[in-house]
Amino acid sequence: MATPAQWLEGARPRTLPTAISPVLVGTGAAIGAGVVAPGRALLALVVAVSLVIAVNFANDYSDGIRGTDDDRVGPLRLVGSRAAAPAQVKRAALIGFGVAAVAGLALVVLSGQWWLIAVGAVCIAGAWFYTGGKRPYGYAGLGEVAVFVFFGPVAVLGTVVTQSGAPSPIAIVATVGVGLLTCAVLVANNLRDIPTDAMTGKRTLAVALGDADTRKLYAGLMLVPFVLTIGAGTRSWPLLLALLAGPVAIAPVRRVLRGADGRKLIKVLQETTLALLTWSFLTAVGLALSGWF
């Protein structure tokens, strides 16, 4: 029987910036459009956080029963470490999906954006089949594509439309930055796991590219959002505030390009999520202020 501390670690709370960031940016865009809706923003946050926790448990369950997590560097895997029974972890994932569905339905009712019910269903299916099912797309090198779509355009624009309606062009540009930085988190994770993933047949994009090219991909994913910030800043100068996140992003990029591996990449993961959260917060402030300038 897993302890409460092990369940908390299994939920992987350090990944929560990937849930918080798109909601920050989407809410900032809504404020910039002249709409302040704290209740809807909170519901969007509940949806995002619940989905991330659910997908963490779902991945723990699916990878665990396949044996992918039997010898893995990084956070505790409940199933792989035998700390919890697979059925218990699966139940935790389903509870997370249920909470997200209920909060999402409440958000749809308040906003009147009924078409988002279909989007929510796709999000839950995408979260489960990332490593679940007979042919998980996370095992076929498509994880980064899904992360970009779901954590970038879907999460950010979903937050915007449920608060203020149609997004502005600069808000759409910001979705790309969030998506790319979230992809960088996944790439850093998969870079660390190349040896074990290759042995267990989990063909992630990192396994397909190899160590050297994966490091270059990571650096590119971290750089492009700042280029987008400069471009968007020519339209609305408050968005240039996000450049202040540059120093936070430099450290993990240096570590990766200098060959950090194994447990050293755990620190890179932490620094990458911090860079994502910092860039997103500053971009959200910039978007909120853009309505005044």
UniProtKB/TrEMBL annotation:
The gene is menA. Pathway: Quinol/quinone metabolism; menaquinone biosynthesis; menaquinol from 1,4-dihydroxy-2-naphthoate: step 1/2. PANTHER family: 1,4-DIHYDROXY-2-NAPHTHOATE OCTAPRENYLTRANSFERASE (PTHR13929), UBIA PRENYLTRANSFERASE DOMAIN-CONTAINING PROTEIN 1 (PTHR13929:SF0). GO terms for molecular function: 1,4-dihydroxy-2-naphthoate polyprenyltransferase activity. It is a multi-pass membrane protein. Its main location: membrane. It comes from the Bacteria. This is 1,4-dihydroxy-2-naphthoate octaprenyltransferase. The lineage of its organism: Bacteria, Bacillati, Actinomycetota, Actinomycetes, Pseudonocardiales.
